Fold this sequence. Notes:
Blueprint: H1 3-9, E1 21-25, H2 35-51, E2 56-59, H3 73-82, E3 88-95, H4 101-114, E4 119-124, H5 131-138, H6 143-148, H7 150-162, H8 181-184, E5 197-201, H9 204-213, E6 217-219, H10 228-238, E7 250-258, H11 262-280, H12 290-295, H13 300-311, E8 313-316, H14 318-332, E9 336-340, H15 346-359
Helix pairs in contact: 2-15, 3-4, 4-7, 9-10, 11-13, 14-15
Amino acid sequence: MNADAVDEIRGTAAGTAPVPLSVLDLVTVGSGRTATDALRTSVELARLAESRGYHRHWVAEHHSMPGVASSSPAVILAHLAAHTERIRLGSGGVMLPNHAPLVIAEQFGTLEALAPGRIDLGLGRAPGTDGATAAALRRTDRLNEGADDFPQQLAELTRFLDDDFPDGHPYAGIHAVPGPVQATSPGGVQSPARPPLWLLGSSGFSARLAGVLGLPFAFAHHFSAQNTVPALDLYRESFRPSAVLDAPYALIGVSALASDDEKEARRQVLTGALSMVRLRTGRPGLIPTPKEAEAYDFGPMERDVAESWLRNVVHGTPDAVRAGLDDLHKRTGADELMITANAHGGDARLRSYELIADAYGLPTAPVPS
Length: 369
């Protein structure tokens, strides 16, 4: 087992937090705001997370959603790397079937060169969008084929990252650059390091695959809460020690928002609930304002969707959110909690991460210049 690889995966809990705390950033765009505003908030959030001891900051690939400006994770991560110094940055995740494995190897090899030792490559098998958009991305309407081929795509990506296709393979002479080939070239001084791979999922498929391959696993509790414990159990039961990990390591994404006032927290998370209602009824849009969400007349089925969503959002005062996160950790045994804060405005999101850090006594360090 590679000890350095484990260090890149396993975090250290800070303050009184039971496990490392991290950030999942959806780069949300609120009504009356622009994508530029959302991306500026992401930079502020990454710098805040770094200064307060959050372990990593991931962005997720989504497409054709007006309220989510994270269609190009690699581009955003390069920008965040230029504005931070220490925090781990990664994809939560890149939807592998949407891309050629060589392209992902090149993109994340470039990110590793820009921010050595700080890049994670989280991979999912879902399209991150609707079927029509997925077909446009992949230039095919055979979408199930892409998901079914995920293990093979993953193996190919791993070979490109490690530059170790066997002799006789059609890709044996192809090298992802930047990458390990530069270290073995005459006069080469390129580091052979590459980003650790994570598998992401909201069901059992990736949980089992991550376990069999001995990889770290990230589960989307924030939108598939009913499957969290079964998926984590399956991951742990399936786990086989590997060169990457000698024991399972699982994080879960959790939707949480803290506010100084409990009613204000409820107002803020209601915007996310209305966004989810619109998404699930084929009407995705910008994140509504709290005023708009409060005034919205939810129909019976819409209210069911909203209430189901809100039940899985830890929200309230900082003490209430800390208690909710502690309880979630106890129930799932997760090794890391990755928090996503869904709200209309960047100020509410930034304040939430600050309050959660305060609630756990996370360290305060100067924001990098």
